[in-house]
Amino acid sequence: xxxxxFYTLLLSGMLMIxxxxxxxxxxxxxxxxxTAEELISxxxxxxxxxxxxxxxxxxxxxxxxxxxNGYIDVPPESKAIVxxxxxxxxxxxxxxxxxxxxxxxxxxxxxxxxxIELQQQYLETKLQTSMLQKEWERKQQLSDNQITSPKELxxxxxxxxxxxxxxxxxxxxxxxxxxxxxxLSVSEISPVIWLKSPISGYVAxxxxxxxxxxxxxxxxxxxxxxxxxxxxLDVFEKDMPLxxxxxxxxxxxxxxxxxxFGGEVEGIGKLIDTYNRTVSVLVxxxxxxxxxxxPGMFMTATIEAAEKNLPALPETAIxxxxxxxxxLVFRKKEGDQLFFEKLEVETQAQYQGFANIKSGASINNQxxxxxxxxxxxxxxxx
Length: 382
Prior knowledge:
Elements: H1 2-38, E1 40-43, H2 44-49, E2 53-55, E3 58-73, E4 79-83, E5 88-93, E6 100-101, E7 106-111, H3 113-144, H4 150-176, E8 192-196, E9 201-206, E10 213-214, E11 219-224, E12 229-236, E13 248-252, E14 260-273, E15 278-287, E16 298-314, E17 319-321, E18 324-334, E19 337-351, E20 354-360, E21 369-372, H5 374-381
Antiparallel strand pairs: 1-19, 2-21, 3-12, 3-16, 4-11, 5-7, 5-10, 6-9, 7-8, 9-11, 12-15, 13-14, 13-16, 14-15, 16-20, 17-18, 18-19, 19-20
């Protein structure tokens, strides 16, 4: 009787264990089914035909950036204001605004009776100096033969050197009038002088008209050489510790993402604008369609400051939907099916097409991510 009861209890226990095992297997199967339903799947053929790509996170250099505003200009040696030291009447203008000119090219003609007088004085002084030189040389020979007194020799030398000084001064005045004293002769005397361009470039502004009377301090033409451009930025005092020469700069026109212009920080000012709390930063612009730039243009720029290496994904791997950001992580492959898990993430930095992932559940740097085509896949699965 007791033996029969023992076997009965044993059989009941085995049945209970079998029932529990069955329930656990059923629960695991249900969980596995639910997990599989949460994954997004696509066939290998669809993956290939859509041009999708997978890849791992990469270490990329990210910069702390500084945003600043400023204006375009050219170096001091690349702009010139043309005028006359002596004033006069404008009798001819040979250029218009925007015209390209070469160094030494005639720009405008100015007339004044004084120009005739200066040329006459130069030629007369030149002749007189030549005569005084011969007289001095003659007195030297007489002095060597003790025929003339030292006083007469000294007087001849003094007269010659004074005339030499006058001749040199007149020659410099002629050069200021852009006349070559060596080419001047009686037949070349003219009441007109030509104002010539001191640099090659473009006529930025014509500030006189034909027939106008000019004073010596009046400007006639403004010439600018646009082979080199500089950007003058105002950077806030709080960003100064991040500044350094050589930092890369990307600049653009306001309210216009394209075109962009590249350069680097060439100099950092040493004085703070006490009103705006800014410092002037000089940028040498070397990249972009420079022919589109004009001195005085207002620009906004981004300066690349401190740098650091961070794990990142291409921005094409970040899917934005319903004001949230997601990535698709490859989880497994079964037969011809590829399975991806949709995970919400947060990015903290973007640079040159890459984004640094700040946080994300179950993300590992060794995971494979869908780098291209994710948005289409999510839309299809919903």
